[in-house]
Amino acid sequence: AADQAGNATFAAATRVSRSFAVDKTAQAITFANPGPQVLGTSPTLVATADSGLAVSFTSLSPAICTITPAGALTLVAAGTCEVQADQPGNATFGPALPVTQRFAVDQMGQTITFLDPVPEPGKAAFVAGDQVTLSATASSGLPVAFTGLTPETCAVSAEGVLRFVKPGPCSVAADQAGTAAIQAAARVTKTIQVGGVDPAVEVDLVTKMQTARARALVLNQPDLTSLLEGGAPDSTALTVSSKGATVDLIRVGGPVWLRLSGSLTEQTGGMRDHYAQFSFGTHAYLGPQTILGLMGTLDTMRLSDPLGRTEGEGWLIGPYLVTRLGDSQLVFEMRALGGQTQDRVAQQGQTAATVTGERSLLMAKLSGAYALNPQLTLTPSMSIAAVKQANAAYLAAGGTPIAAVETTYREQTMGLGVEYATSNANGPLTLSGGLGWFGSEDAMNGAGQGLSYNLGIAQDFGPDANLNLDLTGQRDFDNKIDRIGVSLSFQAEF
Prior knowledge:
The chain is mainly beta. It has one helix at 199-219, and strands spanning 29-31, 37-38, 47-49, 56-59, 65-67, 73-75, 79-86, 99-106, 112-114, 131-133, 136-138, 145-148, 154-156, 161-164, 168-175, 188-194, 238-243, 246-251, 255-267, 271-287, 290-305, 308-324, 330-347, 353-368, 370-371, 376-391, 394-395, 401-402, 405-424, 427-442, 446-460, 465-476, 481-493. The strands form 9 sheets. It has a 12-stranded antiparallel barrel with strand order 19-20-21-22-23-24-26-29-30-31-32-33. The protein has a 4-stranded mixed beta sheet with strand order 2-8-7-4, with no helix packed on it. A 3-stranded antiparallel beta sheet has the order 10-14-13, with no helix packed on it. Strand 25 and strand 26 (376-391) form a beta hairpin. The longest helix is centred in the middle third of the chain and has 21 residues, at 199-219.
């Protein structure tokens, strides 16, 4: 209001008044977007007003998130959270314009920790037939489920018990499917190498052992035709008796012979075997052109193969007959032997199992000797042989049952040899060599044929003893099998 009181001259002025509005100070809110959030966390939102007054918050999407006026945010579900910041003002400051922020709310992640299965104490690896309880945890604390990925080698139960079925790689997956608030975990897999015995591989090794030993047994058989050359001694007596499983041949006069031989075989695919044979026998003369004898054989073999190894020993015993056909130069010989084997079979990385078996050998040979001159003689020959072997069923490493295996090997040969007679300071000396063809058939390789050869030297030490050294070999062209052997034999008259 404006006033003038007046004076002597002027009267007092009439009061004049005016009114006007005074506005409150404006304010603004600063509300930073918190960015994407993850369920399970409790972030605190921050917003400020330039007036310095406190800002309050309100959730515009309570199904996704809730918030206290002070800004304590609670994430309820995955989705888009929308929050509004407000400042209503006071006597000095007017209300601020609301500020809204939107941000994503994602599921919480999780990871799986899957421990390596460990064999029981004392075992280096799992084998077929073993089982183990799997152990895995999720960072979320939710239970983990297991799935077998290789049912041919292993199976897993709902409780997480893993059972190994057969050798090979076993793969298992650990999963956690998650919830509405937690993402599914990334799958974690484990691959365990299962040892033990594969029955098919075991049978394959036994079959290879039988086949290789049958071939070596025939290759290393002693030549019985030369035993006839001495003729009948002055005094002979032959008695054959049976006492249980023993057959005794008792002789007065006549020879005793011993032979040690061995061979090495190599075959495509990495298989190799070493074979050794010790044969011995004695006989009586049934006449100047016929002998009947009893021979025995002890042999051993070691076979290595990419699938594993086998080794074993065996024996054979049985009669033999050698006779000249009338007045001709042809000599017929045959033998029939039977015996047993005991082998040890082990797949790669496994302990060996013992396998017993039975076997028999039938062999017949027809040969001739035709002198071209006093020193040079041709010796054509042909022979047939059959070996039958049968291994009993057994339990391999880890208790895996293995079925019985039975194989038959057959071989036919035809060849021509040359003998050259000379002498040295010790007595008569015979050099020999030969070349021929052979055909074979076995369960592992099927039919095969190839070249056989031999070189030999025989030294007589008077009329009662002689020593023979022979080198023999075969090349199977169909099956890419090479065999080479050497033998040393001794015959003495008693």
